[in-house]
UniProtKB/TrEMBL annotation:
SUPFAM superfamilies named among the record's database cross-references: TNF receptor-like
Entries under Pfam families matching the protein: TNFR_c6
Protein name stated in the entry: Tumor necrosis factor receptor superfamily member 5-like
Entry GO terms, CC: membrane
Keyword Disulfide bond among record annotations: yes
InterPro entries the UniProt entry points to: Fas_rcpt (IPR008063), TNFR/NGFR_Cys_rich_reg (IPR001368), TNFRSF5 (IPR052135)
Keyword Disulfide bond carried by entry: yes
Domain TNFR-Cys, residue spans: 98-137
Signal peptide: 1-19
Any one GO molecular function term: transmembrane signaling receptor activity
Disulfide topology: 119-137
Species the sequence originates in: Lepisosteus oculatus
Length: 208
């Protein structure tokens, strides 16, 4: 009797060792065949050596050899949560949902998508938002400004006054520098002099 038990145990061990877990599975001490990717087992009562397998339905997939009676459900790219379909997937591959343009994952699990943060007036975009992360803003420094709220615009450099133009109004983090022509206004007493009569003009200067 002991010899019989030993033979049975050895036989079971040999079966387990030779049963490829990728394409087969153990059931009641037998090495049974799995269904191929993209299919599922019709029910749990299928014969071990030739199980009947049904294809996955619409919106379903199965990536591996399996003994399951249900396929996996493709993810629902819910537009109400600001998702779009990046990859519809197939009977053997899972599809992929991503946040639509201007939105990013609101958590590590990406259950919903949130709108990118808009940088305030006086700030610019340091790093634009992506499908996975929010916008990063920075203060406008070093002669730069921003007079709008935006999720895409960087700080702009102040206008350079060139040629005959001069700075009329200094720039700030929220406004640009204003340039214009130099407008000289002579003193009031100088306006009394007649530039049309140089002699009179000279006498007036001496008299003063």
């Amino acid at each position: 009797m002991k010899i019989f038990h030993i033979i049975v145990v050895v036989s079971l061990i040999a079966t387990v060792l030779t049963c490829d877990e990728t394409t087969n599975y153990m059931k009641n001490g037998e090495c049974c065949k799995k269904c191929e990717p993209g299919t599922k087992m019709k029910d749990e009562f299928q014969p071990c050596d030739k199980p009947k397998c049904d294809p996955c339905g619409d919106g379903e997939y199965m990536p591996n050899y399996n003994s399951d009676t249900k396929c996996k459900i493709q993810p629902n790219c819910d537009g109400n949560l600001n998702f779009i379909i990046e990859d519809p997937g197939s009977k053997t591959e899972v599809g992929k949902c991503v946040c639509k343009e201007g939105y990013h994952c609101s958590s590590e699990d990406c259950v919903t998508c949130a709108k990118h943060t808009e940088c305030e007036v006086g700030e610019g975009v340091q790093r634009p938002g992506t499908k996975d992360r929010d916008t990063e803003c920075e203060s406008c420094l070093n002669e730069s400004f921003s007079n709008i709220t935006s999720a895409v615009e960087k700080c702009l450099k102040w206008t350079e006054c060139t040629g005959d133009s001069v700075e009329i109004k200094a720039g700030t983090p929220t406004s640009d520098r204003v340039c214009g022509e130099y407008d000289y206004e002579p003193p009031a007493r100088m306006k009394e002099y007649s530039f049309a009569n140089p002699v009179f003009f000279f006498r007036k200067l001496v008299a003063t």
